[in-house]
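Reading a protein record of the kind used here takes only a little practice. Think of the row as the fold of the chain written in a discrete alphabet. With that in mind, consider the following protein and its fold in token form:
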Amino acid sequence: MMSLFLLSETNFFNSFPIVLVREVAGSERIGRNRMVRINGEELDIAGKTVAEYVAQAGYDPQRIAVECNGDIVFKALYASTVLKDGDVLEVVSFVGGG
């Protein structure tokens, strides 16, 4: 897998930035954990779906709301929403009471 990284430099002859694109082979990234931040805690679960995480963490899917990168994840999409390196997930549990 190839990843693209943008690097910015200032051109010596003018003040306009030059943007350089560097292609990095997936092998350069080997050994690095793929982290997802969940409720403020970094976890190595990138590649799993929201449904897999919810089950692993012991949540009742009917009593939670999930937000990924600022967007609500609908329950119908839990099984198809794959968590990626760098994602930020917030899981909120509903609590009854009076």
Observations:
- The radius of gyration is 19 Å.
- Helices lie at 50-57.
- Strands lie at 2-10, 17-25, 36-38, 41-43, 64-68, 71-73, 88-93.
- The first strand starts at residue 2 and ends at 10.
